[in-house]
Amino acid sequence: MLEELVKNKLFKISLAIYFLMIFTFSRSFMGVYIFGFRVGELSILLSMLILTYVICINILQKNKNSNTIDNTIFLIVIFFVVNSFFSDSSLINPYTYKASSYVWSLGFFYLGLIYFKYNNLNKYFINICLFLLAYVYYVAIYDLPYGFQELILNISDKYEPHKGSDLVILFITTFYLLNRFHKGKRIVLEIFVIMASLYLPLLLFKSRAGFISLALFVLFEILNNRNTFKGYAFRNIILLIISTIFMIQSTFLISKSGFIQFEKTRESVSYVTDYRVPELADEEFFELFYIRDGRLRSSDVNLNWRIEIWQDVLFDIQKENLFLTGYGYKEKIPAMSALDFEGNSVRSGLDGLNENVHNFFVNIFARGGTIHLLMYLYLIFQFSKFSLEKFNLKIFFTILFPLLFTSSFDASMENSHFPLIFYFLLGLIFNN
Hints:
By secondary structure, the chain is an all-alpha fold. It has helices at residues 2-7, 9-25, 27-30, 39-60, 68-86, 94-99, 101-104, 107-118, 123-142, 146-155, 164-181, 186-206, 208-224, 226-229, 233-254, 265-274, 301-320, 360-391, 395-406, 417-429, and strands at residues 33-34, 37-38, 290-292, 295-297. 67% of the residues lie in helices and 2% in strands. A two-stranded antiparallel sheet has the order 1-2. A two-stranded antiparallel ribbon has the order 3-4. A hairpin with a 2-residue loop joins strand 3 and strand 4. Helix 11 (164-181) packs antiparallel against helix 19 (395-406).
């Protein structure tokens, strides 16, 4: 059934358009309503159906080809069902599946796995993604016209420009595939380095975790392709000069300073690098981490906000004796309901709807306890091990670590688009 679906021409075209729309409009596209449901909700439903179908087929056929990855995913789903029962999470309540989306998004791993078993990677799709990288960079700096934003709001629940994590996964997905589709081609690596020189200042401005993730990916890719740089000393020097100029120009564009003016370089670079650095009084000094009143803290306001939540999750679970199973899926994680002295919510965001702890692993721990967290860590280990043994691909460094690192400081894996791209990409990779 699923095998026939992925061979269908209409489905293949629809899937390509679907991912291109995600790359182009990110969260705004996932909020578009179709028959009263958002695209993101329908996407998770599709992923859930695919995951359920694959598990049922494996059970009915007693699939002897099932590997450790299949078995681990099966155990993750089984524990969800058991945990739902013990935590009184209703299996007919849509919120249960929203809170457990980290389970159901795994279905897109199998979609990618089966899709690329019968279909080749389309080079035109990759080339379009490369042009989209340039478009997204422009929009990230100048935004869309107000009239177009209003148009999006007429059909979507939210207009949201690309977040740092969106930029990271778009860049990594495009160039991971491009660098391998055109393996050994010098011109492709030069495009990669130049685009990285544009995106790194942008990520530093938008998201420090995203910047670190992208910098790690760029470093690993250069190391993986180091032989392609050998024997081109003069060309390498030219590339270094050009990429440095592009990086400086990027800081000017981000700071809305126009084109490079060397006398203002220091000012523009300081604007980009210091944008998210907290302001301190004269008698204060910056401490990345310190302990006060028995709690870990940071002088960085954004980071401190996150580690306060993570510690509250840990302390609350310890207090409720839910260390093994977590809270389940029936309600918001209690740590996200914190109030200030005046009774105002301090963690629900400007729209009052945020309920994400901004850490993929802490979210799994809060929902499914230590048991689910250990299962997921083991799944990540198996992804790395299997790809290395079967394909000699070090995906832990190039894909898993950078993308999971940025998800450790953001709610990206709790969104509907980021994990679907992530798992679909893994399915593609596992078809080598």
